[in-house]
Amino acid sequence: MPEPSHRRRLLILAICCMSLLIVSLDNTALNVALPALQSDLQASTSGLQWTIDAYTLVLASLLMLAGSTADRIGRKRVFMAGLVVFTIGSALCSLAPDLNSLIVFRMVQAVGGSMLNPVAMSIITNTFTNPRERARAIGVWGAVVGISMAAGPLIGGLLVETVGWRAIFWVNLPVGLAALLLTLRFVPESRAAKARRADPVGQVLVMLLFGSLTYAIIEAPTAPAAEVLVFGGLALAALAGLLVHEPRRAEPLIDLRFFRSAPFSGATVIAVSAFAALGGFLFLSTLYLQNVRGLDALHAGLWMLPMAALCFVCAPVAGRVVGNRGPRLPLLIAGASMTASGILFAAFEAESSDATLVLGYILFGLGFGFVNAPITNTAVSGMPRAQAGVAAAVASTSRQLGQALGVAVIGAVLASGIGTAAYRTAFVTAARPAWWIVAACGALVLLVGLLTTGTWARMTAARTADSLETPETRESARAEA
To answer: Quick one: what percent of the chain has pLDDT higher than 90?
Structure first.
């Protein structure tokens, strides 16, 4: 396939970023709408958790399948199918008559979403073949997350206050349709030269692992202990099954050899930790601003704007730093800032004054803005281009799993702390352990970033890339080039 022109490459990047925008915008806008959903659909705290986690769990479960399928049958084809399903799912969400229906329709959305982000990242990886250009393109990609975080609370708050929470899903319809038409016209088809076979057993085990673990965590405060233990046992059994089954397959759903690379393993742990912190941070902040401070959705979105603005500003800077100096510095900034933000809330009650509340949001936005680009760049760099879709899907899966676990764990801690007490008076005290969890996630980003960005780590990445290279993957890379 001939190399696209510079202008064509930028257009392809813009189209791929449109898919990320609707997926990220949907999540951030919906967080602001949680109190309105709680009131309109009579949802409990666990019901709100499932509204978020039903989407992220299905997304996490199917991302690797979508990445390998795109490498096999064509990235453009799968990407367009994802846009269609996601847009239809958004329309259904806007029509949901009750909480259970909304959760089901969010799962439909997630099926489409699973075909978007990892496939778009694979398209970008194969479009921008120069490492420095790729790092900068990934920085732009990360900036779109900042745009969605900035626009999501404001757009969501405005729509909730003027039209209602259902209008949040309407935003996806014109953007999804425009992205579909532009993809059809401008994005070239690409696929791996050697097709990977499906792994249905591995796929079922991944879904069982993610679903059982999240159910056990979310329902722990209210469900019988025996039920929680059963689902926890299912999660452990599924994990054991994956560890036994996947190495025996020639073409597994999850190639465990990827994790021999210290940078790749580190990127996975960092993604889970950072996005767990993000999921918990947004969940706690939204409920606090609206249910405790009594703000409407629009003003709650305005309070969160400093965090979103820092994400938007820092993401492309992080991409440039990664391209020029590597991932170490952005990860250290990210880990230190996110840890400081969590400690500010947990130990110093940042909610007690407007100044410390804004400072906490600024620190978290600074940290999260620097974390996304090094995760993505590390995940796809050093891997054979023929497996770019799978590598990118593992990184995306780590993000979604982290966000799901963050909402599940922090929501469960909050629900246990509040119990039957008055919500407004008990919230700050009940949330303190949850804020310590956010701080711990930031500290993990800092520690793992230090350990996995040195010379030894780069040597393990090189050895892993050599072990993954086969005559077939080399031929695939030459064919794609």
So the answer is: 31
